[in-house]
Every structure is written in C-alpha cells, then in structure tokens.
Design brief:
The structure holds 2 protein chains of 2 kinds. Chain A is mostly helical. Chain A contains 10 helices and no strands. Chain A has a single domain, classed as MetI-like fold, CATH 1.10.3720. Chain B is 77% helix and 0% strand. The chains are: A mainly alpha, B mainly alpha.
Chain lengths: 281, 337
C-alpha cells in the first residue's frame, strides 16, 4: 500500500494538473457536505426588492429574477448534483462490473446476452436514450439516476469483460480454483478485486459525463423541479435573461458545472496514470 | 464490394431490432394507464375501455408488439397531441433543420480538430501540442447548453454581431423555396445570397457550440494515431529516402492515421445528436430536438417515442455509413470481408 502511495506521490509531483484536480475535488466534496450550512442566504428565500442585482459584495454571484442569492444556490446545489452523479455511477458500476466480469469469465451465452444488451444501448445516441427513459419511467430524480446509469452501463461492461477475459486463465485464478473455491467465489473474491483499480479509473471518467448528462436533462426540464437549486435548472432559468444582458444568473451555475466536470475528467486521467502507466500520454 | 455492403448491412440488423424492442418497451413502462390519460379525467370506465380497445392496449404484449412493428413499417408513429399532426409528418418537416445544424457542426469540428491533431503530433511538445491538450480537455467539460448561452451573450448582446438566437432565419427574410430543406443549399440554388448569409449567421453560433463539444475525441484520436504512425519504420524509410516532409506527413502518415479517426466518428455522432437537443433548446431552433423537448414537457408521448426511434435509426445508419467509408479508405478491410 505504501508503495502505491509513494507511486501516487511520484506521479502527482510530476503532474501538477492532477494535484490541482484532487484539490478541486476536495473543494467540491466540502461544498457538497457543508454547502447548506455555510451558505450566506437561504437558497429558496425570495425578495422582490433585490431581484436581478449584478454581483456585489453582499451577493457574490448576484441575485436572480426572484431575488434569490445565486452564490448560496450554487453552493447548496453541489450536494444534489454530485449525489445524482455518484449514485448513477455506482449503480452503473454495480450492474456493469458484475455482468461484465461474468461475461468475460464464463463466455458463451452469458457473454452473448450481456454483449447484446450493451450493444443495444450503444445503438442509441446516449443522451437521447436517457431522455426516452426518463420520459417513460416518469419525470423525477430517481429516474434521472437510473437513466444515467443505463447509458453508462456499456462502458463498464466493456472494460470489465475485457479485463476478466484476460485473467480467466491467469495463475492466481487457477490456484484459487484448485484450492476448491466455487466459480462465484473466484469471480467475486479474486477477479473482481483484481480489476478494481481499472474500474475506479472508469468511475472517475464517467463521473464527469454523468454530471453533464444529469445537468443536461434538468436543463430541458426533466428530473429536478424548480425552485430546488440544481446547476442545470439554474442555467435554464438564466437562459431567459441572457438576451437582456443579465449574464450572472446563467454564468455562475454553468461555470461551476463546467469546473466540476473538468475536475472529474482530469482526475480520471490522473488516476489512469497512477493505475496504468502504459496509457500515460 | 457488394459482399462487404451486405455483411455490414447484416451487422446493423440486430441493432435495429434492439432499438425497436427498446422503444416499444419504453412506451409500456409509461406510468399510469395511457387509455385513461387519453380519455381525460371525466371519462366513464366504459369510454376508457373503448379507447383501450382502439389503442390496442387490451391485447397481449406480443400482439401489441406486432401491431407496433406493422405501424412502423407503414411509417405510422402515432399522432401528436400538441400539434394534432401525425408524428411522422412533424418529424420529417423538422428533420432538415436538425440535420443541417448537426452536419455543419460536424464539418466545423473536423475542420478544426484534424489539422490541430496532426500539428500537435508533428510538433509534439510544442505550444500547439499543449493547446491541443487544453482544447480537448476543456471541450468535453463544457456543457453544450452553457457554451451556447455564453456565445449568445457575447456575440448577440455584447458585440451585437450575431443575430438574435431564435430560429433558422431572421423574421424579415423569407425562407428559400423547399428543395432539400437545407437553407444553405436551397438559398444557393435560387441564388438568394441574402437568405444564404442570413441562414449562415443563424447557424454559426449553435453549430460552433456543438462543434466545440465534439472537437475533443476527434483531435485526441488524430494526435494519438498520427503519433503512432509517425513512429513506424516505413516513415523512417520514407524520410531516409529523402522525401519532402510534406509528402511524408500527408501522403504517408496521414493516410494511415486517418483510419482510427474515422472509427471515432461514431462516438462523435452520438455526442452531436445528444448535444443537438440541448442546442436547439437554447437557440429556439425548429428541429426535432426542440420538438421532442416540447412534447416531453406536455407529456405528449408519441412524438418523444418517434424522436428516440428516429435518432436511433439515424445513428445506426450513420455508423453503417462510417463502416462502409472505412472499407473504402482501407483496402485491407475489404479483403477481410
């Protein structure tokens, strides 16, 4: 473990961008946990007297058409946006890694069925499929999570299947089998832990995409309902004021969203460097 | 060549079947009873049953599926509650607007990303290489609806060089007579330069925001594949034989490097077709994305289903075209088939 840590420190020292991404990640986590506690205003409190005010010392990010403090709303929204993304990534990981590992390990019909499901999902433009799923299952946050998980599923299956396939006949797997472990135990206790580092990279890379996807869905009016603060909705609300020049309503939530996605993309690249040095670019 | 065509077509069939089954299942997952929904709140149980029979919802699932497939084969996607028109007609009239926007965005993205990737690979480690890395990482992180809004603010509100971000053509201009449905082509066909520039001005911002979003995979792949090709022995031989650098890079390296770039086009299209929905919403673009979003918000399900199906079929067709293009560019694929 200390070797891995030392290796991580070595990679980070050579790659300040990844270190920056880790810093940003910490900041996002902090905002997600303590956001509602440290927000200077109530994110839902409206006040007509201070509507549509540009950024000032009292309101760092300005106020929206109902006089709500945008800084507080952006801060409080962090938790919801990250929760949606985390939940969908974990769901996609559970479904994708388990079925992908089984497909790669057993081959045959398991592989054919899992592969067909993944291929069918990939036959759709992914965001469009997510729209269809949310429309069919019902317009709420849980279904945004499910839809985002489904469109990420093939990515996990693909990686898990390939990695399990390589390890199927590896020495340690044969040894585990010879010592009398059942197939399920070999799969879950030996192969799955072995491919976890690669799956972690995949999770970090898909996090950014999951945030974008969820925000995109709520931008077109699916999922989170106003007045609840969420980055995608806030940009959508700000969109109505862009043509009259009130830029701050859309800019700050949009920029935060961008920063979050940027952070997870960099983090994924950095984690990949730590886990798999061959792919370093 | 015919064999190749047939074998590629055969690989698309399971995808099309899968797409049809999924879109069918999606309608059956609808919360609540569609018959009760269509009948309205004050309907008697008898009226609901009648509507259920009319919609075919009283039949078993396999039977309903057969009816669905028959409808699809005859081009019937149901009727939109909001527009009162058949969904097929609605989609067909709006498709050219979306297609023009998406294709222009793809053209823009390729025109920027491929030279950028080639330059980044040829001058590895230089400022252009760093620029390429920054552009690709930033490009995928930019939510496309946010870029669109930013562009609208800067170019319409601040600089006032772009037209109002609403629709395909300024209200004072008359759209060119319908030939292809692409305003750029139609206006040129009748030599209406005013409409051409007007349409191009409206297209510029939405197309640019979509292009930025899809730059990254193209540029990254071009750079990576150029780098690996440039490291090959045949490039060293070509250089050693005294060929001009230009010939080595374009005739020898680029031709080989372009293959993986073509495969990545499939992913780019998946990005673009999704981004299309968001960009159309931002720029009030009268395409099928905006049509679907409006239908979604009014719980008008037939257009959404038709939209998902149309997009999926378009995407499969595009992937098929990419596969065939790959065969044209790379003779080795043709031999394998």
């Amino acid at each position: 473990m200390s070797a891995l840590l030392r290796h991580a420190r070595y990679v980070l020292s050579g790659n300040p961008v990844t270190a920056l991404a880790f810093g940003l990640f910490g900041l996002l986590l902090f905002a997600a946990i303590f956001g509602s506690a440290i927000a200077p205003y109530d994110p839902l409190a409206t006040e007509a007297a201070r509507a549509l005010k540009p950024p000032s010392a009292a309101h760092w990010f300005g106020t929206d058409q109902l006089g709500r403090d945008i800084f507080s709303r952006v801060l409080v929204a962090t938790r919801l946006d990250l929760t949606i993304a985390f939940a969908s990534v974990i769901l996609a990981f559970l479904l994708g890694a388990l079925s992908g590992v089984a497909a790669g390990y057993f081959g045959g019909w398991t592989e054919r069925i899992v592969g067909r499901i993944a291929d069918t999902i990939m036959a759709f433009p992914l965001f469009v499929l997510a729209m269809g799923i949310v429309a069919a299952l019902g317009n709420n946050v849980t279904n945004i999570v499910i839809a985002t998980a489904i469109i990420n599923y093939p990515l996990y299956v693909r990686v898990a299947r390939a990695e399990a396939n390589i390890r199927r006949d590896a020495g340690f797997v044969e040894a585990a089998r010879l010592s009398g472990n059942g197939e399920a135990r070999v799969l879950l206790g030996h192969i799955l832990p072995n491919i976890m580092p690669i799956m972690m990279v995949q999770m970090s890379l898909t996090m950014g995409y999951a945030i974008l996807n969820a925000a995109g869905l709520s931008f077109i009016g699916l999922g989170v309902k106003p007045p609840h603060p969420e980055w995608g909705i806030m940009v959508a609300e700000g969109a109505n004021f862009i043509q009259s020049g009130e830029w701050w309503i859309a800019l700050f939530p949009g920029a935060t969203l961008m920063l979050a996605v940027f952070c997870f993309n960099l983090l994924g690249d950095g984690l990949r460097d730590i886990v798999d040095p061959r792919q370093r670019t | 060549m015919l064999n190749l065509l047939l074998s590629r077509l055969a690989t698309a069939i399971p995808s099309v079947l899968g797409v049809i089954v999924v879109t069918f299942l999606l309608t059956r997952l609808l919360p609540g009873d569609p018959a009760a929904y269509f009948a309205g709140l004050a309907a008697t149980p008898q009226a609901v049953a009648e509507i259920r029979a009319k919609l075919g919802l009283d039949k078993s699932l396999p039977e309903q599926f057969l009816v669905y497939v028959q409808d699809l084969l005859s081009g019937n996607l149901g009727t939109s509650l909001t527009t009162g028109q058949p969904v097929t007609a609605d989609i067909l009239t709006r498709l050219p607007a979306s297609a023009e926007l998406t294709l222009l965005a793809l053209f823009l993205a390729a025109a920027i990303a491929i030279p950028l990737g080639v330059l980044a690979a040829v001058k590895q480690g230089s400022w252009i290489d760093h620029l390429c890395r920054i552009v690709t990482t930033a490009g995928v992180s930019l939510p496309v609806f946010f870029t669109g809004l930013l562009f609208a603010y800067v170019f319409y509100y601040l600089l006032q060089i772009a037209p109002a971000p609403t629709g395909r053509l300024d209200a004072f201009l008359t759209p060119p007579p319908h030939r292809t449905g692409f305003y750029l082509i139609d206006s040129l066909l009748v030599r209406n330069t005013e409409a051409f520039w007007g349409a191009l001005a409206q297209l510029a911002l939405p197309a640019a925001s979509m292009a930025i979003f899809s730059l990254a995979p193209l540029a990254r792949m071009t750079r990576g594949s150029m780098l690996s090709v440039l490291g090959g022995d045949f490039i060293r031989t070509a250089r050693a034989s005294g060929l001009a650098p230009r010939t080595v890079i374009f005739t020898y390296a680029f031709r080989n490097a372009v293959l993986p770039v073509i495969t990545v086009l499939g992913m780019v299209f998946s990005f673009l077709l999704g981004a299309n929905v968001l960009v159309e919403t931002v720029f009030a673009w009268p395409g099928i994305g905006l049509y679907a979003v409006n239908a979604l918000l009014t719980s008008d399900y037939a257009p959404v289903q038709g939209f998902v199906l149309t997009m999926a079929v378009l995407y499969i067709t595009l992937n098929l075209a990419i596969d065939l293009l790959y065969g044209l560019v790379d003779p080795r694929v043709r031999l394998d088939a």
